[in-house]
Amino acid sequence: MMLPILLTFPLLAAVPLFSLRSRRAERSVLFLHALLTVGAVLYWAFAGPEEFIGYFRADTGNLLFLALIAAVYLAVIPASYRYLEREKVSELWHRIYVVAMLLFVFSMTGAVLAKNLGLFWVFIEATTLASAPFIYFERHQSSLEATWKYVFICSVGIAIAFIGILFLALSAKGVSDLFYTDLIANAPQLGRFWLLFSFPFLVVGLGTKAGVAPMHSWLPDAHSEAPSPVSAFLSGMLLNTAFYGLYRIFLVMEAAGLRREAAIFFLVCGFASLLIGAVYISGATNYKRLLAYSSIENMGIIFIGVALGGAGLFAAFLHLTAHALTKSSLFITAGNIAHLFGTKEIAGVRGLREADRPTGALWGLGFAAIAGLPPFPIFISEFLIAREMVTQGRFGLLAAFLLLVTLVLYGMARAAFGMYLGSAPAAAKAGPSRPIDRLPEAALLTALLILGVAMPDAVRRIIDLATMSLLP
Fold first, then answer.
1. CB contact at 8 A, 257 and 315
2. Is the four-CA dihedral 287, 290, 294, 295 of positive or negative sign?
3. What are phi and psi of 17, to 5 degrees?
């Protein structure tokens, strides 16, 4: 039984770490937890769904999200080791980092495995508490401000989502619980007024954690202040975890005959996020904030794909997968750039190809991947979304979509090429790291190339099943 082990291991392991006070033990536990998560995903992929005490379930609907958590986690572990070594953190903060990571992954895994909307809400709130120490980890004044902003905005968002859950419960008077499958099965009998009234609250509330407009403003500050390996997790998986719950609710709306209304809300949030991302990317001066604004933009594209339906739905989940892997690679690389140049400012980084060729190559490939250049899978997902707009005759949406995506490409290219070209400062040339340190980013980019050039049938099937989720 993998579910009990996966859910209890981080909790049981976190407690003794405070008494052992051994860096080797702390890192070993973190690595073991990552391997356990990977093993659980492989087990469920081959053995099929498994239930645990009625409230958690691993099935074809959440397998994609669990696989992404495992992949990003495995890449973040060695990057975290490298970060903790070069920053020479104290014993206490080393322990805080490891325990917070265990609890953060636990809360995201619990949210994805939860079968009940109320339980999902509890775990989403737990992600805020577990990840807050990371935002403050470097303990600057800006870190403190970003932490308070993150906790405050996300807590307000979660409170708004709770109001939405209460309204949803009013619509489900004939349903004894808030299990997703029961809501789907009884969707035609749900009170349409309260169900429709609850949806904006849920979209705004959970959309806060998903990083989409209108409550997205925590994201650039949190991502820019957190350690780069943590930023990879925040962007690569936390946003997806919140989206997972929203997609489950979207399917309830669809089963209740309210797909059109739900799609309108998703389209509005999607295009607003795309617009905000395009505007702020063009004026970004900090490359970690640039990547954070790119996350807002990409989550907007995912929302647009879900709203369109058809091929756009497959494109949304392909985009979600590609964005998680790409942004994780870019944030890890951004941490290496910050170490080389001693700054997060775009203007302070020049000649990356001279300062450290492996880092320069990975930064260039990461840019190509996130910008949607072929053969990377984001090109495929954006093409499918544009084609679905043509198929549905939504040429106004198509024009807006292409314009905003072009603005994003321009802003990203200006920053990426400016950092890559030119002459590197003498101080930056002195400190290239070992080639083996580039293995996590290289592995993520290799996986992206495989997805773009020749997607394995097993991966395509997992994405397809995720879009048709909610098995009884």
1. no
2. positive
3. -60, -30
Give yes or no for residue 470 having a pLDDT over 70. no
Task: Locate all alpha helices (DSSP H) within 115-187, ordered by sequence.
Answer: 117-135, 141-171, 180-185
Average pLDDT, the chain: 89
Q: Is the pLDDT of residue 377 over 90?
A: yes
Residue 260's contacts (CB-CB under 8 Å, 6 or more residues apart) are none
Determine the longest span between alpha carbons in the chain, in angstroms.
70
Q: How far apart are CA 376 and CA 452, in angstroms?
A: 5
pLDDT at 293: 94
Contact 446, 365 (CB under 8 A): no
* Integer Cα distance of 252 and 256 in angstroms: 6
Residue type, 219: L
Cβ neighbors of 383 (< 8 A, separation 6 or more) are: none
SS3 269: helix
From CA 146, how far away is CA 456, in angstroms rounded?
Answer: 40
**SS3 of 286, please?**
strand
Strand partners, 56: 52, 114
CA distances to 10, 228, 440, 442 from 333, rounded to whole Å, are 27, 8, 10, 10
CB atoms within 10 A of CB 156: 15
Which run of H or E residues covers position 262? Answer: helix 259-283
Task: Please report where in the chains the tokens 């719950």 appear, as a residue.
Answer: 245
Give dist(CA 112, CA 66) in Å, integer: 7
- The DSSP secondary-structure symbol of 310 reads T
Residue indicated by tokens 């932490």: 147
Distance CA 298, CA 294 (A): 6
Backbone angles phi, psi at 365, to 5 degrees: -65, -40
Question: Alpha carbon 211 to chain centroid distance?
Answer: 9
Q: Please state, in angstroms and rounded to a whole number, the distance separating the CA atoms of residues 68 and 323.
A: 10
**125/130 Cα distance (integer angstroms):** 9
Asked if residue 226 lies in contact with residue 288, where contact means CB atoms within 8 angstroms, the answer is no
Interval 162-183: pLDDT, tens: 999 999 988 887 666 788 888 8
The tokens for 211 are 């990083």
Is there a cis peptide before residue 375, judged by omega within 30 degrees of 0?
Answer: yes
